[in-house]
């Protein structure tokens, strides 16, 4: 029966393949680091304090912070005090983006963070556990002269967590509290050119609404969006990677179906890995440029989740199938214990994501972290997912340990075999260990780059050029996993050299194997009937027979 | 338009170094004007020079929208601008109000920080602002330059965030014309950086256009001013802290965006006050550069303040130095610090009298614009320097 390419390919060719893959890897990093800009940009906005003179606030009226139809505004609240304007007449207006710029679908998503500037006053301090009630409206328009169209309107609550670093004395009045960033809004697509936010903080003393929140000086917003340049590079990369993975996948599956035996579990899992990789690769995001699909962000999360859980399952099954013990495997049901935590963990994360981003499809101001119950629920989901991850890694480590133990056990019995077979199996074991190492290297590289991109401020200056570390991280890691899946599909495809049963008798062992070894192996494969994708399988089968 | 336009964009390309870069055209005009002014009245030259852009912080400025069509009036009406600053004013009309705001916050903060000192940063008139004391290259002058430069950085970046400035944002883009493309490709987020760069162009313009021979006292003073301006700007920039937000898949930190967040100006003031206390005394070196008076100390960094002259006596009123004296200042009898009557009144003694102090008490507040208080009155002792 057929052996996999990894076993039958000559070392020289294997090295060539390795070098080509490495070159592509370096290219992926360079594309991100040198061509693409940083993945996201944060833009600051300072809310303009508009004055709503109307006694009964109307929903349809939108307040513009600047431009032709600029609202009646005040510079500071001291001014309001003198003019007799009340808190309920103040509307904080923020136009996204800043003047002379326009938003674009290439920005993919928009995330807004809220921050209050609250001055410390001896007699007007922030109460413990103060809640801010925010009445917020979001509107859009596509050209400067048309009317605003309402997109969302909501009454939100956010918990103020501020602390005052200096001592609370008269001397320090006027200093600002240090307040935590509050999640404010998340929009999954940027289909319109201009957005307008109108924020009110209504006061109702009887209902204790917005009482004891200190003296607010300013409202600051930070808008985060993906950069258009990064989106373009990312899409280009996906568009390039999709056919490459698709072609190798079709090629791989054709080779499997050409064989006389039905595909084994490991082969199916590799195909599934290829399919999930293709699924994540397919650049459906191109549609987001033309259509206003707010669910694209959620869809992207789901696709990523499917790929990662598939990858994790693959590792477990990969190890399990090379566990050289006597148990009959090759069935998915055997692995439920190990794959279970992955499925459960990713399900938890999926539910969490649905709770946050799913609800945001309806109400962009929703945040699961805003309420106490939501926070607890979210934490519960994340903790459960974390426990699942720990369980998974324990299982995986245990299995890898078992594989290596068994391999070294098998090695002991190698001297009993003929010289040619011995060399051959040595080579096989080395290559499997090598693949293990590659996997480990991929994981390590991901972790290392993740840490670098977290610690680093985002870019390095290299003379004239600026290297975008974060972009390099994304394109590099993305390219790396693609190459990994590519390599696995390529190396685990059945080898050509063993096509059909007639050929196997002529070319049973690659390289400088003699006729003797050919005869040696021939009966083994025919007797045991252990069909496997690799020679190791046969070796196990033979051992089991003995 | 083209030679003018090059003033700000051309200087943008420079990094954080302090080398003065001047355009040749302005140099020629300046020489002409200087010569003419000198011919007309040599005694008035001193007065012209004493004018400062700080006056923008005192004179109420009309909103720049009024001047959008008739570009000239605003800039020529504003007193205290130097040639280069006037040019920048014409190019960046909308920035002027905020420079005024910046100067105002700087002066206010200066007065807060020095409220208990003999020199209390009081303003004298609308043209020279702080009076003749600023002609002495003292520690106090150093502080004033630094804090007003800091105020401009703060105000310009604030105006940026409010969407009031049309050229704001993109740091690499030279002109607003190029903005949309750059904005789409890489975004334009950092307005603290913009504030810093604009403040450098505007505040330093005044010093850079002077052309004194190397090693002369005026040259030394110019170097001192440039150094202190930079110290003030860097204080804002360095006190800004980095805030980050994670927003990857399921809220994980695979995607993280960070930005600079300005500290409130009180903290900048305090930081600069510390730098004032540790300011380095300098003198003109052999190469015409400033060097430490006492070589045992570490050389000052760009964040430190430097001064070249000893402070004048602020105890007594002195027309030549411009000192106002401490006569009539309130002091604290029990304190042993600078605000104590002993030090504040320079040993001249003090008058004591009783006064009613009205205070707000038992107040009810809203987050804005609503305070309901009772008025409590207490009888307190006050001390005033003789």
How would you explain this protein's 3D organization?
- The complex is a heterodimer of chains A (546) and B (386).
- Chain A has 546 residues and is an alpha+beta fold.
- Chain A has two domains: 5-39 and 229-545, Rhopdopsin 7-helix transmembrane proteins, CATH 1.20.1070; 41-226, no CATH class.
- Chain A is 50% helix and 16% strand.
- In chain A, the strands form four sheets. A six-stranded antiparallel β-sheet of chain A has the order 3-2-4-11-6-7. In chain A, strands 1-12-5-10 form a four-stranded antiparallel β-sheet.
- In chain A, α5 packs antiparallel against α7 (296-321) and α7 (296-321) packs parallel to α9 (372-412).
- The longest helix of chain A has 41 residues, at 372-412.
- The radius of gyration of chain A is 31 Å and the shape is elongated.
- Chain A starts with a helix and ends with a helix.
- Chain B is α+β, with helices and mostly antiparallel strands and 386 residues long.
- Chain B has three domains: 3-41, no CATH class; 51-314, no CATH class; 330-386, Endo-n-acetylneuraminidase fold (2-Layer Sandwich), CATH 3.30.2460.20.
- Chain B is 41% helix and 15% strand.
- Chain B contains 13 helices and ten strands.
- In chain B, β6 (317-318) and β7 (323-324) form a beta hairpin.
- In chain B, α5 (71-77) packs antiparallel against α6 (83-91) and α10 (191-208) packs antiparallel against α11.
- Mean pLDDT of chain B is 77; it is low at 1-30, 32-49 and 63-72.
- The chains are: A alpha+beta (546), B alpha+beta (386).
- The interface between A and B is large, with 68 and 48 residues.
